[in-house]
Amino acid sequence: MAGKQSERLKRARPNGPGFIRKGRGKGFEYLDWNGRNVTDEAMKDRFAALAIPPAWADVWIAPTDREHIQAIGTDGAGRRQYIYHERWTGRRSSVKYERSLDLGSRMTRVRRAVSRDIAQRDDERLRCLAAAVRLFDYGSLRIGGKKYAQDNGSYGVSTLLARHVSVDGDTIRLRFKGKSGKEWDLLLDDDQLADYARDRGGHGGNKRFLSYRVGRKRVGLTSQDINHYIADIAGGEFTAKDFRTWKGTVTAAISLAVAGETVGASASDSAKARAISRAMRETADTLHNTPAMARNSYVDPRVISRFRRGRVIKTGVSPDRATVKLLSSR
Q: What is the pLDDT of residue 1?
């Protein structure tokens, strides 16, 4: 495995030889460039670990695991989509993941500030901002945007409506349509969020859930408001996107730590590939996107590379601190 890690990536040739995926029954079969069915289990495990969305058509898969593009397909909207080698993605995304790691190291500070501010009943705007960040932290929501809400009827934290939220005791339930038409139905157990939701209960229907009074009007939070607040309490130029990146990374790290109890450093590449594929599915479920999107955009590739070398986070301790420690070490 060490040899594979040290080999240089080479440019993919999507018009050249490669594997193709075809539907077969309720699943798929894979054919090589000579039209022969792929029966090698290790090769099929490699394909599974790529987490190619089932909805993709015209799928091409690189002939080896050393090409910088590993798979290409056409999504439901007719757009060509790409899955890159994790080392290639890592080079291009290193700044993003370093920023996410930096935020992860400050989560205790961030959560302390949010717990303080969400209790400020005499400062409605500050309380709104804190509730927004709590939703990112506990629910992994996107920030949302006015244009998405108006054009597509899809929502995020900044555009949630009161009708999307219900409360029962210390539990709030969020039901709304998110990006790409994904339906969210999320239960969050948090007494402070529940208190906030109850206080907003009298402003139901199509009123903004995260809003505050200015004179006689209620004003909804904007994504800029929220990102400025995040930067302020975290002490750095962080945004809501960094929360989702960190959440994706930690979720994958937890899944791989559980897998690591049975899949150690000496396990076969196939066993590791299956564990990685499962971790990407679990991360996608948390983020409400696809395994390919989770792997390409939200999971720090160092979590995967360390798992392949037998290194995972310790269980029984704070996942945030454990993930920071894992990624900060060589």
A: 38
Q: Enter the tokens of residue 149.
A: 């809400």
What's the pLDDT score for residue 204? 61
- Give the pair of three-digit tokens for residue 146: 């006015």
Which among 15, 86, 18, 22 has a CA at the least distance from the CA of 50? 86
| Nearest-angstrom CA–CA distance, 170 and 113 | 20
2-96+242-328: which CATH number, 3.30.66.10, 3.40.630.30, 3.30.930.10, 2.60.120.280?
A: 3.30.66.10
Q: Per-residue pLDDT tens for 99-139? A: 999 999 999 999 999 999 999 999 999 999 999 999 999 99
CB-based contact 319:254 (threshold 8 Å): yes
Q: Select from 124, 154, 129 the least CA-distant residue to 142.
A: 154
- Rounded (5°) CA angle 323-327-329: 120
DSSP output for 256-306: HHHHHTTS-TTS-HHHHHHHHHHHHHHHHHHHTS-HHHIIIIIS-HHHHHH
Average pLDDT over residues 64-87: 86
Q: Name the burial class of residue 213, with classes exposed (0-12), middle (13-18) and buried (19+) by CB atoms within 10 angstroms of its CB.
A: exposed
* pTM attached to this predicted model: 0.72
Give me the CATH code for the 121-234 domain, please.
3.90.15.10
- Token pair belonging to 239: 């945004």
Q: Which residue has the higher pLDDT, 88 or 123?
A: 123
Mean pLDDT in residue range 67-84: 85
Angle of CA points 93, 245, 87, to nearest 5° = 30
